[in-house]
Amino acid sequence: MDPMEALITQIQGLSSSAADLSRLHTILKQATADVSLRSYSDHLPSLLSNLDPSLHSLGFLFILDASIASPVSKPQAEIFVPIVTTFIAACSVEQIQLAPDKFVSVCKKLKDQVVLLEAPIRGVAPMLTAVRKLQVSTERLTPLHPEFLLLCLLSKCYKTGLAILDDDIFEVDQPRDLFLFFYYGGMICIGQKRFQKALDLLHNVVTAPMSSLNAIAVEAYKKYILVSLIRHGQFSTNLPKYSSSVAQRNLKNFCQPYIELANSYGTGKIAELEEYVQTNTHKFESDNNLGLVKQVVSSMYKRNIQRLTQTYLTLSLQDIANTVQLNSPKDAEMHVLQMIQDGEIYAMINQKDGMVSFLEDPEQYKTCEMIEHIDSSIQRVMALSRKLATVDEQISCDPIYLSKVGRERQRYDFDDFDVPQKFNI
Amino acid sequence: MEGDDETSGPMIDEIYANGDGGDNNRTRKPIFSGDQLDIEVYASLYAGRTKIMRLLFIANRCGEKNNTTMQLEALRMAYDEIKKGENTQLYREVVQKIDGRLGPGYDLDVAWAENVDRRAEQKKEKLENELNAYRTNLIKESIRMGYNDFGDFYYAHGQLGDAFKSYVRTRDYCTTSKHIIHMCMSAILVSIEMGQFTHVTSYVSKAEQAPESLDLITVAKLRSATGLANLEAKKYKLAARKFLETSPDLGSHYNEVIAPQDVATYGGLCALATFDRTELKNKVIDNLNFRNFLELVPEVRELINDFYSSHYASCLEILGNLKANLLLDIHLHDHVETLYDQIRHKALIQYTHPFVSVDLNKMADAFKTTVAGLEKELEALITDNQIQARIDSHNKILYARHADQRNATFQRVLETGRVFDRDVRDMLLRSNLIKHEHNLRASRKL
């Protein structure tokens, strides 16, 4: 009998109970290792039609993976993408979680193919399903997270990307996945203008433990500087103490133009900032950060106007234009209007005499929504501290940790010096 | 809205009346008055090297401003003063500066200079021989005297560095606390002349370690020297405290460094710039000791009283009048601008403090400035969070802004919660990453 047909029969027969599945898994692994699957890669697609992706997910997965092992051409990709998409949609969670690395490899190939077809949007929905199916818990980062975010970025489906960014990630297999995940996540949040979230995500990249500098961290640091300027109007080159020494020492050297930009921003002189941006346009452009840099410049106007609301109750548009260094009262009006619309300031423009009245924040913290919001924050913080306590407990019981700490303490333990080892017969 | 009227009680009226009379007093008092500095009276307050240096400083300042009459006057007096001493190097410099402009009486007197130099040479030789003799005999007291003489000799000849070294060397041969204090006082004197104010502080604290042998005058000297050191270090509040602690026993005993008038001016200005109202009242106005000093410089006294009773216009006017002469002061000139700015800011803050709303026009009148200028000043102070108010630029009114504690607390709580949330999550993540890497390393080792 054709070994392939035998394999198919086995898959069909052994896809029901858990014990059967683990036997099948061993068989399949052997088959892959023997290269026997590879050699039939040409008619593998036709074999797949004999299998039901929802019932025989494990077998389907192995054969699918084998069939797209080699680099594919565009027409081939056109064939594979729908197969993989249906498979991801239909496959059973229990079965694919037996062979997560195969599943990841298939999904990564899907990503390559949609990128090859220049239609990344076709991969977004299946990839999200894949992420959801693969992850054991929402706290775990899968290798598919960054792939999914990348597809979102490429297809500009930022909103879809936000869906998984709201999950808290605590567990990670591959540091590289984590760096990419936060970096892409930061970019998606920038696209959605959720700068605070973006800042948090990029902050994670920059402060993550690393033993040597990587390009992702450098790029993230550049964006971190820019977003920090947009969001807070200031930037401090000091990283927190817990960030790795490599990052603390070296990141700055790779981002000199950005640091200088931040310094120039700090002086509060808009003309200087614009001139600096002008002279360094090509540097920012080559980093693909020019758009963000432009947002930094325009945020300076906003910040200056915002500062005026702290000092003035009323101010003429002409005075605003003068103080903020805008060309005309008309420009000032546009800026103020835009900011009122965005909820960044509270003000009223009196067009008759060209005066702007700045108002106080109308939020009185009395509404039900606000109380609900506060309550949910409290709940969240309480849950977090519980988690913190559990983790603390776990770590203090971790034998590896204890042995490390114990070893270090021994070195300084005075009793040990009383009877030196070599004299102790 | 009428700031001046509302705050003035009966007591303040009295002070105010006193302040009005200040104009008459002012003409009688020569020091730091609004009129041009009377150099002769000014110089008579000081003795020794500082007199010369102060005169030369005034001459330089006036030279920069092309005030030739005053410059020459100062140089002439400096010349006369130097002629009494033995500092030929300084003499030559001054003669060069005079450059024949004061007539033949003030040309270079070569014979005198050479004579002095020769004598100095001889004296130095004599001192050296004496000191060597003492050193071979190992008589501590004599060695100390020898070094001390050397210090005096160098000081008289303007070699301050050597003088300082010689004085400090006497330290090893000091047997009583009196000697130590003498050494400290000499070292302080020379360091002030050199402008090394860090030495001043360290020798003051050394001298204060032997409190039992300090007499009142010495204590006052030490206080004023510390005040000077703090002033130069821009620690104005400390400087003010030290000057205020200086007892009136100081008199003119320390005129080789500081005149009692200076104590009043320095202390008064520093206090105005850095003290709050209660401190000003308790430590300056009600301070009996310091009142004695203030009597010497009524302008500063008026200034402080005006400030305290919120007569800012006259207060700022006096400040304006004093400025030109304060800039001629060898110690204060660098700090005048900063102190003035601080005093002005404090005046602005105090002016706005009691009101819910302030008419900017009236306020500008009170501060002798334009509304636009005032607006800028207020804006800076509000941005610095020194005044809690907002400007109604349309109606030119300043409204006090009472921070809504409740809202601010809510805002802060939410923000703190958010930061905590983020930090804890980051921390958990990082700890997991570290654990992961640790495990990785452990498994690699196996």
From TrEMBL, chain A:
InterPro entries: COP9_N, CSN3, PCI_dom, WH_DNA-bd_sf
Keywords: Cytoplasm, Nucleus, Signalosome
UniProt-listed Pfam families: COP9_hel_rpt, PCI
Localization in the cell: Cytoplasm; Nucleus
Sequence ranges assigned to domain PCI in this UniProt record: 194-363
Gene Ontology biological process terms, A to Z: ubiquitin-dependent protein catabolic process
GO CC annotations on file: COP9 signalosome; cytoplasm
Family: Belongs to the CSN3 family.
Protein name per Swiss-Prot or TrEMBL: COP9 signalosome complex subunit 3
Annotated source species: Lupinus luteus
TrEMBL record, chain B:
Cellular component GO terms, alphabetical: COP9 signalosome; cytoplasm
Region (Disordered): 1-29
Record-annotated PCI domain positions: 236-405
Chain coiled-coil ranges: 110-144
Protein location: Cytoplasm; Nucleus
Keywords for the protein's UniProt record, in alphabetical order: Coiled coil, Cytoplasm, Nucleus, Signalosome
Protein origin, superkingdom: Eukaryota
Gene3D superfamilies the record matches: 1.25.40.570
Family as reported in the entry's similarity comment: Belongs to the CSN1 family.
Protein name per its UniProtKB record: PCI domain-containing protein
Species this chain originates from: Lupinus luteus (European yellow lupine)
Lineage: Eukaryota, Viridiplantae, Streptophyta, Embryophyta, Tracheophyta
